[in-house]
Amino acid sequence: MWTLTEAGHTGPFKVKADGGDLVEGMDSLSVDDFADYNPEESSTSLSKLYALNEGNLLEVDDGVAEHVKSTLGSSGDVQSVDVADSGLVAAVRRKSNSEFSLQIGELDGQLQDSVDGPTLARPTFEYNGQAAWTVVDGDRIVRVVRSKTTGRISESEVDARSIDDIEGEISVIRLSHSGARVAMIIDGHVYIAAVAQSSSGDKRIVNAREVGPEVSGSALSLDWNADGSLIVGTSSSQSPVWRIEQDGSSASTMPTGNITAPVVAVATSPTKLFITDSHAMLELPSTVMDETNWREVSGLQGRRSSPIVSN
Fold first, then answer.
1. Is the CB of residue 115 less than 8 Å from the CB of residue 137?
2. Is 25 exposed, middle or buried (0-12, 13-18, 19+ CB in 10 A)?
3. Facing residues of 183 across strands?
4. Are 91 and 308 a contacting pair, CB within 8 Å?
5. pLDDT recorded at residue 149
6. What is the pLDDT of residues 161-204, one digit of tens each?
């Protein structure tokens, strides 16, 4: 709907699939039905930079990295984290030597326990910042929702039967800024799929396809760029960072310069790209592709950290 409208066709539109309405119970569709997926909305938001260092969450501002005031900044047990512009945070924390727990809540407040598992993928927030996804044990995608009014947490499983025939475990999952797509790393391969929603609000993954065959088997980390493309970190010493176009039509290597593979974490803001290689957390202006060397993030020199950009 947004693509057609931006091309000058205002609608509404009747969209059929196999003789029935494409979206159950909706005879015609327009952008008003998908206001939450406005592709321009994310460009107006301000992104804050955080870093995960030795199990603690730090906020990075004007070249100074300070521990956040909640227990996330001092516990030393945080394995991965995502921060939403809404002020919510979703964190995977170690409960024992063989168990992790996903917690969700206000960044500066009390967090509530949600799903547990031997492995939990780094959480990723939906566009509205009230729901986060993670992957339990590499194959079960779980959606955790925190009520705006009551603060209560509920969990549901995302219908991912469409990727059952893809072999391997899901190691990374990232929702796009609009929430309409999801990118995954499965057994070192990069996949993009659409996110569908039923009339009851249940989510499912559809139309998954592999993109970026150039990085097949070597992908370790990924994130969405502001323009809808992907930045992918790999284990390749020759081409450690790649950009994959949003339609999967092409992939290109990013400046290699002083990067030492593997690139285990990546993050993007509207103005900068961040990565973590084998030595440090590095940054590069997103609009300057002729530079060859990345530089260490000010305030984190000498401290190998993972970048987190609020979205």
1. no
2. exposed
3. 174, 192
4. no
5. 86
6. 999 999 999 999 999 998 999 999 999 999 999 999 887 889 99
Using an 8 Å Cβ cutoff, are 163 and 208 in contact? yes
- Quick one: three-class SS letters along the chain? CHHHHHCCCCCCECCEECCEECCCCCCCECHHHHHHHCCCHHHHCCCCEEEEECCEEEEEECCEEEECCCHHHCCCCEEEEEECCCCEEEEEEEEECCEEEEEEEECCCCEEEEEEECCECCCEECCCCCEEEEEECCCEEEEEEECCCCCCEEEEECECHHHCCCCCCEEEEEECCCCCEEEEEECCEEEEEEEEECCCCCEEEEEEEEECHHHCCCEEEEEECCCCCEEEEECCCCCCEEEECCCCCCEEECCCCCCCCCCCEEEECCCEEEEECCCCEEEEECCCCCCCCCEECCCCCCCCCEEEECC
Alpha-carbon span 83 to 52, nearest angstrom: 12
Backbone φ, ψ for residue 256 (5° rounding): -90, -50
Integer Cα distance of 141 and 120 in angstroms: 10
Q: Is the dihedral of CA 238, 242, 244, 245 positive or negative?
A: negative
Tokens coding 125: 């927030």
Q: How many CB atoms lie within 10 A of CB 153?
A: 18
Q: The whole model's pTM is what?
A: 0.86
Nearest to 226 by CA among 203, 246, 205: 246
- Whole-Å CA distances, 209 to 45, 193, 297: 30, 6, 34
Cα distance between the two ends of the chain: 23
Token pair, residue 161, equals 């039967």
> Which residue type is seen at 228?
G
